[in-house]
Amino acid sequence: MPDKLTKSILLLLFFVLTHTLPLSAQKIYQTSLKDEVGANAWRVIKKSYQEAQQQKADYFLMDMNTFGGAVNFADSIRSLLLDADMKTIVFVNNNAASAGTLIALAADYIFMHHGSSLGAASVVNEKGEVLPEKYQSYMRGLMRATAQAKGRDPKIAEAFVDPRVVLPDHKEEGQVLTFTATEAVNAGIARAVVKSTAEIYQSLGIQDAQVQQYQWTWVDYLVGFLTLPLVSGILIMGIIGGIYFELQTPGVGFALVVALISASLFFAPLYIQGLADNWEIALFAIGVILMALEVFVIPGFGIVGILGLVFMLCGLAFSMMANDFLDFKISKPGMLINSFMVVIAAMVLTIILMVIFGRNILRSATFKRLVLQDEQRAETGYVSSVLKADLLHKQGIAKTVLRPSGKIEVDGVWYDAVALDGFIDAGEIIVVEKHENYNLFVRKINA
Predict the structure, then answer these.
(1) pLDDT attached to residue 300
(2) Who contacts 274 (Cβ-Cβ below 8 Å, separation ≥6)?
């Protein structure tokens, strides 16, 4: 009898203590995924999780509203959630489509807002067209593995990708599975339908929650802005235009500064996000060097110049997309073509603008004040190419490299001239052979 009484008292005491004394506060770190799943989203989520670890949070909550994005970055976020050393929660706050579904399945708990949806995870291109089977097979494998890791039905996860999967209680054959909030709860994919994070805490029995919210910094916004395709295109125009003007007016001047600033703003955000690698930046730099060699050292426009353009083009395009040293399988389908289109379009537009406005810009008083250049004064022996008949067949000296155009000196007077041989080095003896349209045409005299 005393034993029963003792047990009863202990049980009563335990009940009173557990229901009257406050539980220790639970730390919850909250972040958001409200845009396309891409490089910037992955960077912010990773940074958020690192801060959650520093805060020793008990829960990591992701407020999600996304239509998907790049599979490689979604897989990175998925892996982070699967390997997390704290409980993870995804709050589907309207949409978790495509890559968003993959991320949600990696969380310990999925909660969905009223009217939200989850599913439709087939891999598509930029036009929304379903890609070939090899892409779908890879995605199905990721979905199954993720669902199994969190104790969810792998067949349902596969049905989010494959329309051939038959689930009599949820969909017919030929349809890709998409759940409403209530359907996801009934299927055991989501835990509950809620209206706010407060209801999430209540459902999980979290009392006295201490919530820490990730605060976006100006760097986050700036990086996201600079990596927009339109902004990247404008920066590429700044790079190409700056290089063009610098080659036209040699010397460390305004044009070179514009090119360097544009290159820094283009590559730095991509490098921070893990897109641009050292070898891609080096590839672009080699292209610039080859172009400079073509202009200043090697006559004509040949293989070196072509290689320079190709290296610059590839360095810029490869930096804009995820790849494992030319292995583009990890990148979003169609991204390779899109990157090259952005770079080529920016280059073509720059060339057009240079043809239309370049000569006027070079001659403008503002540009001349901004660049370092030598003045060509009459008292130093320079005159314009107003030609005289007695210049024909006269000998002179090349004062600059002619590649093929440059400057020569005849009888102590400087003239603009074009080399008939394609290239004449400074100091070479030349002879004037003809003049057309106010241009002198000269040929090198071989010793």
Answers:
(1) 56
(2) 39, 42, 43, 322
